[in-house]
């Protein structure tokens, strides 16, 4: 595996009986890259992510994530990645600090390290005034920011974000992307799915899945030039229509 390529996928496929959910996809993702993984509902994005994070075994193909084979070293993959999604839930009946402490323990951090991380995270996000409030009392945008930060607690090489900004307002989405950029600038690879096409513009490169296949993969600028359109939404619509 190349030192700069933290995800390497070749002909990765997932079948459910006669149905092919992910069809021989091939791509690489480099260290510190913000990689957008786009597609309509049912295109195969979530199935592909489940294989890459080690919770679903591929039917065939090859994939290495954070230096580990997803077929044979799924547990090592899990230890070296972070994950959050729109559906990922912090524990509503725990406080902000209790949630951070709980997940730090799951990630195997020492008590001292958990306290250091919790203090730094609370300071960075400006949560001092609410750190002892129950998470259920916070707005969705705050929950998403905390969830992302919790996914980074153990300093993973890669963070998978599955529709992380669904349901939040545009200003909060922009603030969330500032957190993404900061993590990427520190060397963490960000693998993000989104159905907001304006967010595709924020990615270094994007792939677009249609019916289980990757139909386009390039920088947003190059894709817009290739399809002779002004925005990524038009690129997506052209591919979806075939």
From TrEMBL:
<dbReference type="InterPro" id="IPR003593">
    <property type="entry name" value="AAA+_ATPase"/>
</dbReference>
<dbReference type="GO" id="GO:0005524">
    <property type="term" value="F:ATP binding"/>
</dbReference>
<protein>
    <submittedName>
        <fullName>ABC transporter ATP-binding protein</fullName>
    </submittedName>
</protein>
<dbReference type="Pfam" id="PF00005">
    <property type="entry name" value="ABC_tran"/>
</dbReference>
<dbReference type="InterPro" id="IPR003439">
    <property type="entry name" value="ABC_transporter-like_ATP-bd"/>
</dbReference>
<keyword id="KW-0067">ATP-binding</keyword>
<feature type="domain" description="ABC transporter">
    <location>
        <begin position="7"/>
        <end position="236"/>
    </location>
</feature>
<dbReference type="InterPro" id="IPR027417">
    <property type="entry name" value="P-loop_NTPase"/>
</dbReference>
<keyword id="KW-0547">Nucleotide-binding</keyword>
